Amino acid sequence: MSNVTVCARFRPLSSKEKRDHGENICIRSLDSETFVLKDEKEEEFTFSFDRVFYEGSEQADVYKFLAFPIVQDACNAINGTIITYGQTGAGKTYSMEGTSILDCHEQNKGLLPRVVDGLFHCLESADNTTKYTVNLSMVEIYMEKIRDLLDLSKDNLQIKEGKVKGIFLSGATEVSISDRTEALRHLSSGIANRAVGETQMNMASSRSHCAYIFTVQQEEKNERRVKMGKLILVDLAGSEKAERSGAEGRVLEEAKTINKSLSALGNVINALTNGSPGKTNHIPYRDSKLTRILQDALGGNSRTALLCCCSPSTSNASESLSSLRFGARAKHIKTSPRVNFSETKIDKKNLVPSPTKNESYERILNKLQQNLDEEQGKLSPIKDESCERILEKLRQTMDEKQVKRLEELFVREGLYCYPNTGNGLESTHNDAISQTIVSLQKTVEELECTVTKVKNS
Ligand SMILES: Nc1ncnc2c1ncn2[C@@H]1O[C@H](COP(=O)(O)OP(=O)(O)O)[C@@H](O)[C@H]1O
Ligand SMILES: [Mg+2]
After folding, report:
1. Strand 44-48's sheet: what is its strand order?
2. What are the residue boundaries of the Kinesin motor domain, all occurrences included (predicted)?
3. How far does residue 13's CA lie from ligand 1's centre (Å)?
């Protein structure tokens, strides 16, 4: 079991805060872990965190303390999550991205580009018996819908849970990244797709939660099993109360939805930390998309760090107090990170159902779809003989033309090669199961189409 690492970060006063409220700040530092916050009624609250980053803190220090150990773990197949929390304008995105992903002074680089550097540094220093593959997905949760930031046509992704893979987003675009430049390019174009709105708090504030998901897969030369670490960075939308942001209409609705999912996050944290010892109480992960995505990060299989971003201005003391209280509660969460292995082979005997004499095509397809959904939760490269087996089983119930079409589809998707051509097997072996599943799903869709046509003819 490990505790969630919680840090607080205070940004410098903004020029607006200085202009409207002067240089007064609401915090007094005691040391690098403890400080006192004075609220509007002059009441004092002492907070202690794993580390406090004050106004002059360096981006590099935040990375080193908060993210570096998690990045190293991800390279060793241990899941990690890094979350930035706080009111709009408090420095979440600055901490996460820096001033710009692509074009940024070294000093201003945020966690994301540093994580990319860290990942590739780990990978490059690995011995040559290990083959690493890094994939990236980016999504935003906007008004309780999950949008794929790498493919905006996918605007309502569903969350699923698999035995090995844990919580995952079904059908989310996963791009393979082979170097830093490619990673930053994808991150930058994904970020450009984020929904932004304007409130009084911040002229270009993000009104959505954004999750950056890196999957690091490693294959040892003489190992049958594949190891996989998932590293999720989450830049949350502003935690301020809806009425305070001066929002109206659609923007107010957004703010309410944001507050609802952040309340759900608070409720999950309460349930996790208030339970009686030895008793398993209900944790309401399913109350929002955000908490469901963060299920592993909160009390599950992940090493987790939370950065509570705050304004130091006396004018924002009550919002800062509420962010810090949130962090103090989260500190009590315990998680159980572990190394993630997956089986190298799909359980082929269960993948393709055995058809009985009178079984309809639909039933076979339903079973196949059901099995594929289960397989989605696993990470295991499918082998050519699996495809062969699928084709063989289908030949028993479908006509040769349809099976031929299916075989072509397998070949087109790089899952299978015609005997003796020797092409594609290597890369097939190295493909992640998610790609395999997407291809197989397409096949199922095509088959369903064929079945409908056959029925109607
Ligand atoms: N630690 C910091 N040092 C310097 N500027 C900062 C810092 N944190 C935030 N800022 C600046 O404050 C403004 C608001 O920060 P931002 O990260 O966009 O807030 P949020 O994402 O929490 O809404 C931005 O202009 C950002 O550059
Ligand atoms: Mg932001």
Report:
1. 27-29, 34-38, 44-48
2. 3-333
3. 10
pLDDT at 346 over 50: no
Question: Which residue range is the domain that position 402 belongs to?
Answer: 384-420
List, as one string, the DSSP characters of 355-418. Answer: PPTT--HHHHHHHHHHHHHHHHT---PPPHHHHHHHHHHHHTTS-HHHHHHHHHHHHHTTS---
199 and 286 share one domain:
yes
What domain count does the chain have? 2
User: How far from the centroid of its chain's Cα atoms is residue 111's Cα?
Assistant: 15
Q: Read off the amino acid at residue 25.
A: I
Instruction: Identify the residue whose tokens are 């996050």.
Output: 265
Q: What is residue 94's predicted lDDT score, i.e. its pLDDT?
A: 96
The one-character DSSP state at 104 is: -
- Are 201 and 292 within one domain? yes
Q: What is the residue-averaged pLDDT of the chain?
A: 81
For residue 86, the ligand closest to its alpha carbon is: 1
Same domain, 131 and 221: yes
C-beta 94 within 6 A of ligand 1: yes
93-103 in b/e form (b: 16+ CB < 10 A) is bbbbbbeebee
Alpha-carbon separation of residue 384 from 118, 279, 282, 381 (angstroms) = 35, 47, 43, 10
56 among annotated binding-site residues? no
